[in-house]
Every structure is written in structure tokens, then in C-alpha cells.
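Good morning,

Both structures are done.
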Amino acid sequence: MGADHIGLLTRRAMLSASAGAALLGFVRPSLSQASQSHRIAVARGQAPLTGPRRPATDVWAYDGVVPGPTLRVRQGEPVSIVVDNGLEEDTTVHWHGIRLPIGMDGVPGISQAPIRPGEKFVYEFTPPDAGTFWYHPHANTLEQLGRGLAGALIVEERSPVPVDRELVWTIMDWRLRPDGQIARGFGNMMEAAMSGRIGNTVTINGVVPTVEPVRAGERVRIRLINAALARIMALRFEGHHPVVVAIDGQPCDPHVPKHGRLLLGPAMRIDIVLDMQGEPSRRYEVIDDFDEELKYSLVELAYDAAPPMRMHPSEAPLRLPRNPLPTPDLKAAELRELVLQGGMMGMRGMGGMARMGRAAWAINSTSMTGDGHAGMPPLATLELGRSYVLRLRNDTAWWHPMHLHGHSFRVLSRNGAPVPHNQWADTVLVAPKETVDVAFVADNPGDWMLHCHVTDHQTAGLMATLRIEGAGSETR
């Protein structure tokens, strides 16, 4: 990122006393650390995004920190989270990737009334799936997320993979002025019709990083969360071979990614296990080269001088226990094609941007703008309990991470070629002119959002609702 990559390092210490003890052998995260009751306050604040020697950045934050506090809860146990709104505008919280009741999904006007300034809302749900999830607003999403409102939500596995340490990297992208403050201009329609609001500064856990301290021979689990508005990342771990063990919180067949690159669109998560087989006292770059001309070093793995903990990678198994996802019946599944349309270089047949007003995108020639609102007619009505294949056909010149609320789906194929490694997701990255087939069981009744998680694309029309209803179901 060169001169535009602002800031200095202010990383938290790598090892606490308990983590130091963990270096003696593999450990499993203690489920006793997870709490089922939380309270978070939404308010304006300041964060040292670019280091302690530069002015703090004015942000909007959960509990005064960016990203918000990492919430850890237990799989299959009821959760209660009170959200206090201290902003001067409405907000909500969407628990991204959690399969929960529609009334807890955080979409204003569709699943709940917005949380007014000075008011609170209690979110209550029981997470059926373990994994890496996150939370963010679904009201004025473009600006609220772009000013810092995001946090990790970890649902602990009952039998996690044995590792020496676990790291959570919540990666955020900021557009900062030279004085370190957030630049205005949210909702620029020219950007919305292209790749969205890309920043000039990338942070991990709220700071511009330079190093991640590691020790030779240790095995580390890293939970990667892309909480950016629009930045797509392709991460390469120089000199290392990350093993993917989960995608969007859902376990997959452990595998080394193709060409060693972890492709991570906005809202996507990938859990990796990394055996630190580098040389003591040496540094190795983690590079984002999604755009080869703009590639930059996100962070360096900085080995200390201590001798290796172990000389060879452990042979301990890396497979996570499967979550209780319903398996779609592909033979009986009904196919629904969803065509992604519009954007710069793709407006023909849509009347042009001038005639579309605030809409630059559409799904099946239908545009829904904003964050969701009461009275939005569903793009399709699905039968409760039935299996469906959604064929996402990207007729545009741009990438789209497509997210379905309330469900996880099996990623079946890309341009007709089967997708390996038993991959499930809630957000799938669809390349320009690519067609992706995903399958799921419509087992969660309600009006569920389907939208691009490049937030400018969502608010400029690349959004719809799928209504799931059937005998005995309730929607609102």
C-alpha cells in the first residue's frame, strides 16, 4: 500500500501468562471463558488506528473500541445480548452468519423495528453452529460500518482442533485523510457503480500492524474476518502453508488453498491452522495481492530467537466437528436462477444510471436500495423445508460477495466445475461473468435478505428478500 498505508504498530502483547503456559503443549480453548450474557453500547468514540504518536481517529464504536469486543458464546446454549444505542441515529445489529429466528436478524422494518437513539434492544437466540461469525449494523450500514461498527462473534466448538494458540484477526479497511480522520463521501454513486468505497488504510484488530510475534514450531489457529466495506483480499503467507479448516464458520475438508492464496471477500471468514516452520529471528510477510498492481504487506510474522518448540509439524488431526446443518436433497431441489445485473460497464438493458436514480444494480431486473425496509416485496417465495439450488449468474464486470441471511449453503460449482473440499458458506464470492451454484434447505421461516456485501452495491440496489413460508410458519 506504500505511502498510503498510514501508521505505526501498537500491537497488544503476544503472550499473556496463560498463553505462555500453553506453549508447553497443545491446548483447547476453555469454554468457561465464554459468556451467554453480554451488553454492548453503541456510541461515538476515538481509536488509535494509525498509532500512538498520531492523532486518534473519530469513530463509531461498540463499547468504545474498534473493532468491538470479541463476544464468545457456547454452541447450543441460549444467548442474551443487550444493545444500547448512544448514537444520534437509528441502528440495529445483524449477527452475521448465525442461523437464528427472523426477529433477531437485525434488519430494520423486516425483522425488527430500528433501535432509536437512547433506546435498547435485547437480542436472544441459541446459536446452533460453532464457528467464526461477526456482528455489524444493518441500518445506515455503509456509514456505520465504515466508521467502525464491527466485532467478532465466536461460537466455541465443543471439540476444537488442538493448537498452541488462537488468534482472531478482524481486518477492516478505512479511507483516512492526511490528518488521520475518516474521509467523507459515503454513498458516492460513481464508486457504488464500480468496486465500492476502497480505503487507503487496513487495520488488524484496530491498528495498522507491522508484526505478529510468533515462535518457531508452534501451531496457531487464525480466525480471519474481512469486515471491510468493499476490499477483497487475497492473502499469501510467505514461506508458510496455511491449512483451511472452516469457511464462514462452517467446517470443511482441511486443505491448502489453491496457489496458497486465501480469497476473502467482504463479510467472509476463513479459519486456518498455521504451523510456524520458519527460521527463528526471521520475518515473513503476509501479502494481499488481490490486485497485483496494488499489492502490499498486511503484516509480518516475526519469529523470536527461541529454539523451535517442535522440529516437525504435529500430526494431530485438523478436522473440526461438523455443525448440524440440514443436507439439501439435490435430486429433488428446485432451481432458482438469480441474475446479478448493472454497475459501470453493465447498465445496458437497465435504462442507464440516470434513469435508475439511486439504483445502480439489480437482481433479476429488480432493484432494492438502502438497508431493507417495511413493505419490500420478496423476490421469490420458497416453501418451508424444501431444498433449493440458487444459481447466481454474475452478468456484471465486478466482483460480488453474495450473502444470505438466516442460512448456510453448500457451494456446489463454479461455471459448472464442482467445488472441492465440502465447502459451506453464508457469503460466496462471485467473480465477473461467473456462475455459482449453491444449495440449501429453506428450513428457517421469514423474509430473509440476500444481498451483495460490497456495501455500496447493496445500498445501490443489489439486494432482495427471499420469503420462506409454509404450513405453521410465521413471517413478518
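Second structure follows.
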Amino acid sequence: MADPTLATARDHRGEGAHAHVGEGAHAHVNKGEMFTSFDVDAFEVPSPREEVWRFTPFRRLRGLHDGSAQRTADPVIEVSGTADGVTVEAVGRDDVRLGQGGVPFDRVAAQAFSSFTDATVVTVGREVELSDPVVVSITGPGEGEVAFGHIQIRLEPFARAVVVLDEQGSGTYAENIEFVVGDSASLTVVNVHDWADDMVHVAAHHVRVGRDAVVRHFAISLGGNLVRLSPVVHYDGPGGDVELWGLYFADAGQHLEQRLLVDHSQPHCRSNVVYKGALQGDPSGDRTREAHTVWIGDVLIRPAAEGTDTFELNRNLVLTDNARADSVPNLEIETGEIVGAGHASATGRFDDEQLFYLQARGIPEEQARRLVIRGFFREVIAKIAVPEIRERLEAAIERELQISGA
């Protein structure tokens, strides 16, 4: 597989938790900071000329970017699997905890914050260790409807938990999800986008990592018409350890986009990013039926972040014609006192040598292709600590392979 051309443009947020601009000011982005605000009007309407939006098909956003998409319904959010030491609350925008994970960094996220009816806050108490996952089910508002949501997952110091965010249904939906992970706490979150074919979904994930805390974040994108996910990681103290894992499978007509930022601002922290995707478009050549994936991985190592150890990897497997994968890893280092930093990206078709090896041992070509694809995703699936989710993903990939005829 050949490495694609790597771009150097990148965007990231500053260290300040809140930022506001006056009337007529611009939400200006530069290499050292990203403007943030709860106020929708503080942001200009984005355009395809901006680096952070240049891959997104605006005509398919249904007005989420310019304010013309107004709330007509609400998502259905249900929490199950709670135990002693876990609280679930419905709160308003005036709750002081909202924003502790992160503040909206674009107009869609600000619109989502200003438009939700109630926010759901799930808190795992200090030193509570959960043996079973907490499952947060999010159901879209329905075909033709528009909804906005806000969820915050909080782990107090020394807590340990697995949280599954299971998103299904139809409609148009924008949301902010905050993960506030206290000192020495450990959170594994598995976010599954299993939307219906009509769904347009734009989400911002704000991850705040305490001293010596551990976060394992899995983003699984399978369904939907357009899905755009933007996870942002901030460290609040030394010793933070974050891994971001992703799996996506785009069919004809789908646009799946992931934009990540890991902002290393504290010493002796670690991050590892692995995202893998497969694409299968309509081989007839109809551009409206193109499968398109976008992965932008930004890592910033600030001057104070001595001892940082980081790596990011993106791999894309193109199964048919009329499929396009854009992959842009970016690494910005502002101190030389680090353990290590690197990135890698590759996009291509089947490895002929792998197919030849399997066929040479008597495995038919069709079965050999399936084995290669399963093996391609195995690294990510094997890391998921919830057996039910692993089985569900394996079944979903098998259905995708039946569509492609692999």
C-alpha cells in the first residue's frame, strides 16, 4: 500500500477552558490555539475554503452548519447497567459541570449546546469499580426530524468503568459528549454509530484526562448518510495515558469523517491512535454513490509536554472502484525533550501477496478476500472489552462483505 501525500495544515484548541469574542469578531484558528465558545453567534458560518471543513459535503449537512436546522424533536437517551456508586441526572445548561470536559470549538457544536432540551450526566463515584458496562442508548429523532443532544460521562478519582454509547435511528442529529476522567481513574468508552441510511450526524467528543488517568476510546462508524466525529483530548496532569481506536466501513453514498486532536500540554503523557477503515462504492461510476471516508489526525506536543510518547496510524482498504479515502496525519512538536513521536498512513487495495499466499494453500479467492478483511479489522475488534459489541461488529462486517461480494 502506498502512503498518501501528507498535508501540513492543522487545527487545535488552546489551553484555556473558555473563550469568547465580541460582536463582529471572528472565530480565528491558528497553530497554537482554537477558539471555543458556547455562543453560536461567536462563530462564523463555516465554508469549504476552511481547512477543517474542506472535505465535508455541505449540501448534505441539512443546515446544521448555518443555523437553518432548528430543533423539531429530541433524541431518546436511556441509561442501563448502572450499579451502586453510579448516578444518572438530567440537567439544564446552567449546570456548572457542563463544559468541564471541553467547550464547543465550531458552530455546529455550539448550536448543539444551545439547542438541547436536557443534558444527561452519568457519574461514577470515587473509587467505584464497575464489573459490567454502563450502556447509554441514543436513538435519533426520526426521519425528517432534527435534534440536538448533550451527554457527560464523569469518573471521579480512582474509579474504573466501561461505557458503551450505542447510537441508532434516523434523522438529523448534532451533539456534544464530554468525558471527564479524574486522577488515577480508568475509562473505556465504546461509541457505536449504527445509524439508519438517512442519518446525518455531527458529534464533538471532549476528553479531559486527569493525572495518571487512563482512557481507551473506541469509535465505530458503520451506518448513516453523513457522519462527522471530532474527538479532542486534553491532559490535566502528568501521567495521562490515552488510546484512540477507530473502525469504519463506508458503503456507496456514505460519507464518514473523523477529525482527531490530541493536545499534549502536560509532561510524561502517552497517546496512541489506530484507525482502520474499508470502503466500497457503487462500481457503476455514479459520483453520488461514491463511498468517501476522511481521517484527519492531529497531535500537538506543547513546550511543557516533556517526556511525551505518541504515535498515530491510519489504514484504509479500498474494496471497489468509486471509493475515496482521504487520510492526513499531522504532528506538531514544540519541544525536543520527548520519548518518541510518529505517524503513518496508507490507503490501497488488497495485498496481492496475502491473497496469493492463501490461495496457494487451497483457499478459494472469495474466502481468501474475506479472511484478509477480517484480519485487517481484527486488531481493533480484539481490543474491545465488551464481548457483545465484538460479536455485533463481526456480524456487521460480515453483512458488509456480502454487499461487496468479497
